[in-house]
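FAQ: What does the model actually see?

It sees only this:
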Amino acid sequence: MSDSPQPAWREELVVDIKGGGADRHEIDADILGNSLLSLSKLAAKTSYFVYGRDCNVSVKVKGGFREGSFDYKVVFDFFGGLTPVAPQLVKALFQLLDLRKFLGGKKPKSTEKMGNDISVTNENGETKIFAPVIINMNNSAPINISLNGMYKPLDEGATNMTLRGATTFSSDATATIEEEFSIDSQQKSLVLTTESGILSQDEQQKTLEVLTPHTDGKATSWRFYDLEDDTEYLANIEDPEFLESVRERRQSFFHGTKITATVRVTKKLVNERKRTERIITNVTVLPDEAA
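And it is asked to produce this:
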């Protein structure tokens, strides 16, 4: 008997790839593997935005083939956090893709807060309402990179990728409405965006020792020691509240001061050389006894 913990809830997404070798139920293992890995990272990051950091998601794949396509089902099992009234991850993914398509590969012309939502205006002057979490996801570089990786088969011979999943649920959390989002190799530039030169980007929760702080609240070139990786590095801080507390002398630093924070690691190709940049966000200073 398995002792594996049972998930608090589950969501499912079907990915259907057509064109090229997919029509013969074939796809390059590296391409598929990278696409699945990117989807897994996308699910984890979306879960963080939608359900919070206390919720963990496990991603599993169920294979299945139909004539003239290569399709598979992705199962998202969730552990921890507060069980939602209705599942939201797949819905959030579809809303993000809808926002991307609405913007047509461009940045919003303007945004305006309307109650609890945000009105977005595209370059054609059209407006549409989105939840703030969708706007935040759209501005997330890790989300961007994972989306591009998930849709990589469109760069390698596939002509169409369709996502299908439940986005509306009844009071007992059973699916009542399924939606789908489809893009082809010609439309991908309207949905996918990537910053030139970025090779990869990832975020991790870390415990860091502050080696060189800037007591004037300067955001750049702080030096940290990563206790887990046993490495020292320079990083910039993007946490306005933390930097303000430093400038106002509400935050002091001593030998051995430690913080927990999100470390965003970006690997870029600059002048044909690889460069690693680190950004620190969500800073919490640990009390002396925890340090």
